């Protein structure tokens, strides 16, 4: 396995002196949840000054009854941070980042599910996926309104028959992504994109991406959506044979609905195996 000098230096800085051995183990299909401890390594993907320290959690590991009524799903497998549209999103740790676009219609059998008598998208939209080599885990930050120019963008593939957009390069193996031209080495606090609600469009007329565009279609003005602006934050691993996400974990170790999660407005407690680096207020630190 060959690492270019810049990325080799980055891996060493991240404390992965034996990265090649770790990668070899991963590609043999080890189960990550059993072998990786609940290390506190995450920070909030925002700059404190941009939000004046304030944010809300509007969906937890389980969807609220209100949102279940819209899309019919119960388990979220992530956390939704609701902050103003266009707020900068930054890297919550050092790692390797890629981006793409994902937009599928929500189906019920062979028909599109309707909300307020219109079809809805239920997808990641513009997203950034970041791999952390130190803990051997991935995160996805989704529904962005733009992706920072420093993050390579992999053009999605259009399925004309289904009118869906499928992302590209998100299933690279760890060995592949370390040296891939569409993946960038990043540091905690580096810009990744901006908050939006892409992938959650209401109605067929919403345009979020133009086919073959080299970069995202910047959504300066909000499209029509059935949801509020937020960042979907998902911590996971990818099966090194199939590329599928697996072993998702709730970074708060609560596995419940939004009202039970601690925020600046809600003095709730996290579970004992939370993944956040905490500040003096016992809440997750901001990345910057």
How would you describe this structure to a colleague?
The chain is of the alpha+beta class. It has one domain (5-260): Glucose Permease (Domain IIA), CATH 2.70.70. Helices cover 13% and strands 25% of the residues. Strands 1, 2, 3, 4, 9, 10, 13, 14, 15 and 16 form a ten-stranded antiparallel sheet that branches. The chain is globular. The model is unreliable at 14-35 (pLDDT under 50).
The name of the CATH architecture is Distorted Sandwich
Order of helices and strands: HHHHEHEEEEEEEEEEEHEEEE
Overall average pLDDT = 90
Globally, the shape reads: globular
Low-confidence stretches: 14-35
The CATH class label is: Mainly Beta
Explain the layout of strands and helices.
Layout: H1 5-13, H2 19-27, H3 32-35, H4 48-51, E1 56-59, H5 65-71, E2 79-82, E3 88-90, E4 95-102, E5 107-108, E6 111-112, E7 114-115, E8 118-119, E9 125-132, E10 137-147, E11 157-159, E12 164-166, H6 174-177, E13 184-186, E14 191-195, E15 231-238, E16 245-249
Antiparallel strand pairs: 1-2, 2-15, 3-14, 4-9, 4-13, 5-6, 7-8, 9-10, 10-14, 10-15, 11-12, 15-16
